[in-house]
Amino acid sequence: xxTTDPRVDAYIRNAAPFARxxxxxxxxxxxAGCPDVEETMKWSFPHFVYKGMLCSMAxxxxxxxxxxxxxxxxxxxxxxxxxxxxxxxxSLDQLPGSKELTRLVRxxxxxxxxxxxxxRPERTAAKPAPKVPAGLEKxxxxxxxxxxxxxxxxxxxxxEYIEWITEAKTESTQKKRxxxxxxxxxxxxxxxxxxxRKR
Length: 199
Description:
alpha+beta
């Protein structure tokens, strides 16, 4: 038995005239491909849930969108963005026919049946530590307290000091910044100590 959500009925009813047949076609195909699907509203637009997120559709002023939650894993993934694998839909002929759309819904439901997860993107390598400018290195060697603080800083705090110094446009500005850096480090301060929350 098809279970519908009155909020989705209202959403389709209140959509622009061009969008109503598109949304109705998508809804009918989703229910045909996955009879046990449940309708809900998330982020103010219709979603279809079956053992987790299955797909969603939305209507805007001049186009509609439709996408599968695991669209990248379908055998014939449509073209578009992650939210709308079918791109900006402005007419029914931009969508697959009922048979093809139903087949894709079945595939998406099977992925949820099998508990298939979307592979997480690989983590990008951390930025290499920036090279300590020669002037700062020399100044650190001459001040033990500043050197101790600098070595104890997190990589991001170290980078803040180094980038502040290396971004100086003139040599005199760079020397002033190195002197200030040594002074602050000797006091145990990070580059942005003025903006840190006081405990």
